[in-house]
Write a structure and sequence with these properties.
With 343 residues, the protein is mostly helical. It has 17 helices and no strands.
Length: 343
């Protein structure tokens, strides 16, 4: 005997609505009930083994960069001592370390740099610190600019959207790498006379400014499109009817719904800025010696690989591990926020 609800479903040809938790284990359904989207995202992320391992690797690199002075003090050496002058018995007449594998020993864990004889271990620590801090500053500045201009263009529309869109189109036409190389000397010359030695902080500020200038457009365009979609939703219309100001609508209604693309794009942007900064230093227009930097170490390794191949090994492996780990972390964060998205 059929119930009235079954008869109605059969006569209309429309099956009764399904419970979204019907196929989930009852214990798991009870555990998921009442959880916020952030808690569900964290739960999915913790189940991703590759994401968790990558997160630990990334945190390790940032901890090493942050604690570089402490580790250097415990190690008993710094990246600025010229051991070729302090301990001449460790080098031959050409400045090449006499010990095996670039002079690696219990005293110098990663060996000594050919030429000046800097300690490779502490130079790598401070090089990680320099590259990550510059890239993190560029990422923060780029994300803030992308949020400001992208949300403004998408929500305000009209002339604001038109002019911001034309600015984005113009800047996207610039060849980024060539612009970085060509503009770095120009930006530096604005602060320092070309005949004077350029302070390190000026080079750092110039690196941040140049990369930020051509780094925010992709995120701004993405957020503009998402904001255009959000502003037509019912909850935005309800907020307008209730008398909420545009700033309150953006802050309370739109920005919380943009957390996912902002966080995902940020995790992909930072490693790109790390490689861009290292590339500029490698070409000699970024950070230069004696300031430790990943790119400067690669530049030095390219000139001494014939006499000391080991010197290239440590910065190369460190950068490869960091870039791969951060890219895997970005994939895991994206999947945790949007489990339906295909990798």
């Amino acid at each position: 005997m059929t119930s009235p609800s079954q008869a109605e479903a059969g006569s209309s040809g429309t099956p009764p609505p399904l419970d979204p938790l019907a196929k989930i284990d009852p214990a798991e359904a009870r555990e998921l009930t009442g959880r916020s989207p952030g808690q569900l995202m964290w739960r999915r992320f913790r189940r991703d083994r590759a994401g968790m391992v990558s997160a630990y690797v990334v945190l390790f690199f940032f901890a090493v960069g942050l604690l570089a002075p402490v580790i250097s003090k415990l190690y008993g050496k710094d990246p600025y001592t010229v051991w070729a002058d302090e301990r001449m018995e460790l080098f031959d007449s050409a400045g090449t370390p006499l010990g095996p594998n670039g002079g690696m020993s219990s005293e110098f864990w990663f060996g000594l740099e050919p030429g000046n004889g800097y300690d490779v271990f502490t130079k790598l620590l401070y090089g990680i610190r320099t590259s990550l801090m510059i890239s993190l500053a560029v990422t923060v500045a780029t994300v803030l600019t992308g949020i400001l201009l992208g949300v403004a263009a998408g929500y305000l529309g009209g002339r604001t959207d038109y002019w911001i869109g034309r600015l984005i189109d113009l800047l996207l036409a610039f060849p980024a790498q060539l612009f970085f190389i060509a503009s770095m000397p120009v930006v530096v010359s604005l602060f320092v006379d070309p005949q004077d030695e350029t302070p390190t902080y000026v080079r750092v500020v110039a690196l941040i400014a140049v990369q930020w200038f051509l780094g925010w457009m992709g995120l701004a365009r993405l957020l503009r499109g998402t904001t255009l979609t959000l502003r037509e939703r019912e909850f935005i219309e309800a907020a307008k009817v209730s008398g909420a100001s545009p700033w309150r609508i953006i802050r309370k209604e739109i920005l919380p719904n943009l957390v996912t693309p902002i966080l995902v794009q940020g995790t992909f942007m930072l490693p790109n800025f790390v490689t861009a900064e290292a590339g500029l230093s490698f070409l000699g227009v970024g950070v230069v010696e004696p300031t430790p930097d990943w790119g400067a170490m690669f530049a030095k390794a390219a000139s001494v690989y014939e006499v000391d191949l080991t010197y290239m090994f440590f910065p190369g492996i460190a950068m490869i591990v960091f870039i791969v780990a951060f890219n895997l972390l970005g994939d895991s964060v994206r999947d945790a926020f949007d489990p339906k998205a295909a990798r």
